[in-house]
Specification:
Residues 1-24 are annotated as: Disordered. This is Right handed beta helix domain-containing protein. Residues 236-351 form the Right handed beta helix domain. With 430 residues, this protein is mainly beta. It has two domains: 16-115, Sandwich (Immunoglobulin-like), CATH 2.60.40; 135-416, Pectate Lyase C-like (3 Solenoid), CATH 2.160.20. It has an eleven-stranded parallel sheet, covered by helices on one side. A ten-stranded parallel sheet has the order 12-15-18-21-24-27-30-33-36-40, with no helix packed on it. Strands 13-16-19-22-25-28-31-34-38-37 form a ten-stranded parallel sheet. Strand 10 (140-142), helix 2 and strand 11 (160-163) form a beta-alpha-beta unit. The longest helix has 10 residues, at 145-154. The radius of gyration is 21 Å and the shape is globular.
Length: 430
């Protein structure tokens, strides 16, 4: 995984409503006890950090938050002003501001936060994304399929296998595994670059890329030819199959796959990516959650997928700070039966109201099929569909198709309709 960084350029990062978000993300088996002080208001993000944190106002008007993150957990707060102190400065955790890694020992320096780009400027990654991996960090640079396969087969934890910026690597029928602890990278966003490409023109097996544990895939384009709406047919394949724990996919562009752009057999973090044009009927997922209870999908741009984020029915996820573009085959976020565990869907903007497969307009944005074991908590979203949520199989903004009353589904503080909400904290960063 990449070393936490301090960004070197850009405008001061402001979250929705003039607030930033700070996140403490455990990367180990031991709890992390933390404390930070901000010059302005501090508030735990609903569903994160509640129950194990406290925020106190100090005599000088600053606020100090204290808390603990359990094994592989995360706590998230919004804050105003700037951070004046953070501890610890090292350990098995990552510190992020508006989804971007920062050095814990430098976050209290005024220039650190001022150097980060706005969250809206790097939504979907690409130009300006401050955590891009430069070619100088590469252990090996590859430009063809034989070189890529050899590099991955010989890579060890900590290595960076780098796809040359100008390369388009056709994988044919090969299925490649990124070994545990290895980063597979290219230069998407650096000086406006598109990033090197891994191309899967032949539909074969699971797809071109599979991961081990603690893998990072960043700065790449992963493409296939099936980028227009077609009826369901086999064979099918996916762009990246996450078959290990603790993986991260960021600053990538993935398109053209019939099953799923990203297929998750374990929880993972997918952020600052552009996931689009995976529209086959019957499947056609952007991110499909099959295993794990803590997948995080944030700061992405989605467009023209059948379903952009879906759950096969037994896992859990958090979907936040994403933008769902104006073209969709069906609902954008949801779950299959029996209904999954805990679903958190908040601070997103949902634009598409017309579904290609039904022709109806407006149509649903979120569909909770079945009943979650815990809850589907849906809040602070901007739904362009003006129709208020309703149970059953209707065309409202939020539906629960297999129930005549909402069961374990909560929704509040959402905005309905295409007019921009007056509350700047609703919707994705803008």
């Amino acid at each position: 995984m990449a070393v936490p960084l301090v960004a070197g350029s850009g405008r001061a990062a402001q979250g929705s409503g003039g607030r930033r978000r700070i996140e403490i993300d455990s990367t180990g088996s031991e709890p992390v006890n933390y404390e930070f002080t901000a010059t302005g208001a501090v508030e735990a993000v609903r569903g994160d950090a509640e129950g194990n944190d406290s925020v106190a106002e100090n005599d000088d008007g600053t606020r100090t938050a204290t808390g603990a993150v359990g094994s592989w957990g995360r706590d998230t707060y919004t804050f105003e002003g700037r951070i004046t102190g953070f501890s610890p400065t090292e350990g098995e955790f990552e510190l992020r501001v508006d989804g971007v890694r920062v050095d814990p020992s430098a976050v209290a320096k005024e220039e650190t936060l001022n150097s980060l780009p706005t969250a809206s400027d790097v939504l979907g990654g690409g130009t300006g994304y401050p955590d891009a991996v430069p070619q100088s960090a590469a252990t090996t640079v590859v430009s063809d399929i034989d070189g890529l396969e050899t590099a991955l087969n010989g890579a060890s934890s900590g290595d960076v296998v780098y796809v040359a910026p100008s390369a388009t690597i056709a994988v044919g029928k090969r299925e490649l595994t990124v070994p545990s602890g290895v980063t597979l990278a290219s230069n998407r966003g650096i000086d406006g670059a598109n990033g090197g490409e891994i191309r899967a023109d032949e539909v074969h097996g699971e797809g071109p890329l599979r991961t081990g544990n603690q893998v990072r895939i960043t700065g790449l384009r992963v493409t296939a030819p099936n980028d227009e709406y077609i009826e369901y047919r086999r064979p099918v394949h996916s762009g990246v199959v996450v078959d290990g724990k603790g993986c991260e996919i960021d600053n990538v562009e993935i398109s053209g796959f019939t099953y799923s752009a990203v297929k998750l057999l374990h929880s993972a973090r997918i952020h600052h990516s552009h996931i689009h044009s995976n529209p086959m009927d019957g499947l056609g997922y952007g991110v499909l959650c099959i295993g794990g209870d803590s997948t995080l999908v944030e700061y992405n741009r989605f467009n023209y997928n059948r379903h952009s984020v879906a759950n096969q029915g037994t896992a859990g996820y958090e979907v936040r700070y994403n933008h769902f573009g104006d073209k969709a085959v069906a609902y954008q976020v949801g779950t299959h039966r029996p209904g999954a565990t805990t679903l958190k869907i908040h601070h997103n903007t949902f634009v598409p109201t017309k579904h290609i497969n039904s022709g109806e307009d407006p149509e649903s944005h979120v569909s909770i099929r079945g009943v979650p074991d815990d809850v589907a908590d849906i809040h602070h979203n901007w739904f362009h569909n003006p129709r208020q949520p309703a149970p059953g199989r209707g065309t409202e903004s939020i539906i629960q198709p297999h129930s005549n009353t909402f069961k374990n589904v909560n929704f509040d503080t959402n905005h309905y309709g295409p007019k921009q909400p007056s509350d700047a904290t609703v919707g994705c960063p803008r």
